[in-house]
Structure formats: structure tokens, C-alpha cells
Amino acid sequence: MSLSDKALNSIYLVYKSWPEVEEYLTDCKGIILPIGSTEQHGPTGAIGTDALTAEGVALEVGKRTGVLVTPTQSFGMAEHHLGFAGTISLKPSTLLAVMHDLVVSLARHGFERIFVINGHGGNIATVKAAFAEVYGSAVLRGLPVASKLRCRLVNWFMVEEVRREAKLLYGEEEGSHATPSEIAVTLHLESSLLNKQRILPPPKSSGFIAGPEDFRRRYPDGRMGSNPFLAKPEHGASLLDIAATAISKDLSNFLLET
Ligand code: NI
Predict the structure, then answer these.
(1) Ligand 1: distance of its center to the CA of 151 in Å?
(2) Closest CA to 239 of 194, 174, 192, 176
(3) pLDDT of 157-176, one tens digit each?
């Protein structure tokens, strides 16, 4: 077992036994829940980009802080991407119910600080709505943690330091979907994805999106203003490090909040 595997085993919920989780809870009430999406990321990006990146950032933050990480919620709200093969979406109401149930399960065991690391903009509104329901449910169900329960959503790709670095690396070609910054993180995490990289024509872009068919009409290859060909694995390593540094600090403050 390598050092990094040891670090992973100590923070990944999947590898824990229930007595170990109970023991963990005597010392720390925080847990990280990564959420992504399974959706098209342009003609060269992996369908799992948002799940891979959220999970990569979450595990790195977990290793640095010692905070447990749950399995990734890999399906998100991706209705507008359903015009492209491979996309799997949960309706907002379904995702709301899923996130509610995941967080309430954790709260029931005594977790008081639920730190959601998100890789997909389309999840934001629904995750926040789920938090609002969770607080109500915790009280209604009489959970002992109800008064101490706090949920926080951090979107790794929107962290100020990450945006600054993406701007430096890619300027306007960062775009807003299938961005070189998120693709770079996937190339760092999974080198076989490099085989997909190729030069693409300038992306099409236009405003409001009404639904999957409309999305495909406006953005025929799935990208929104981005040039993912600029992505390099070494950029991904540095973006991941920058995200994990900022988010670890944020998490440490969150755990101390009253
Ligand atoms: Ni994405």
C-alpha cells in the first residue's frame, strides 16, 4: 500500500467499519459529501467530469484535514444536457429528495457539520433548497443534533483563487461549460483521458437555454464558450492544489463555527 492509499483509507467512508465511524464521531462531527454530475462535457471531455473533479477535490481536502469523505453523489441536475448521449440527470425535485435523505442520514448518526463540495453549477439551487428542508426535518424528527446542524455548499470551480488561476491560464477561453480548467483536473486525475484531446473549432455561444433541445441548438457540440484543448494535466494538478488549499481553510473555519 502506498502512502497516498493509507491517507485515502483513513478518510474515505467507503473503507470504514461502523465502529470506526462511531469512534471518529467522538472526536470530529464534520463530514465531506462530494456531488457532481454525469453529463456531456463537449466533444472531448469525459461525461463524468463534474463527479471526477468534485471527488478529486473532496478526497484531497479530506487527506489534508482528516475529515471523512462520503462516496460521491455522481448524478446531479443535468436536465439541460439531456440532448447529448450519455448524460444522466435527476430532476431538481429528485435531487432535492436525494440530498435531503443523504444529509438526514448523516445527521441521525451525530454529524453536525455537512460540507458539500460541488462540481456542477446546475446543482447549486437544488442543494441549497435541500439544506432548507434538512433543517426543518431535523427539528421535526427530533434529531439530537438539530440545533447544532449546519450544512455548507462549496463550489470548487467558483473558489476565488481557482477562478483567478483559470483566468491566468486560459483568459476568455475558459468559457462556462466544458471549461479547460475542469478538463485539466480530469486529465491530472486520469491520464487516459489525454487521448481524447484535440483541437476544436471556435465554440458557438448564445444566451438563454430553455431545455435540452434548445441547448443543443445553441451549443451544437456541447461546449459553452470554452476551449478545452488548452487543458494540461499539470494545470489540473495546480488547480486541484489551489482548490484544496482554499477549501481546507474554509472547512476548518466551518468546523469551528457555532
Ligand atoms: Ni462541468
Answers:
(1) 23
(2) 174
(3) 999 999 999 999 999 999 99
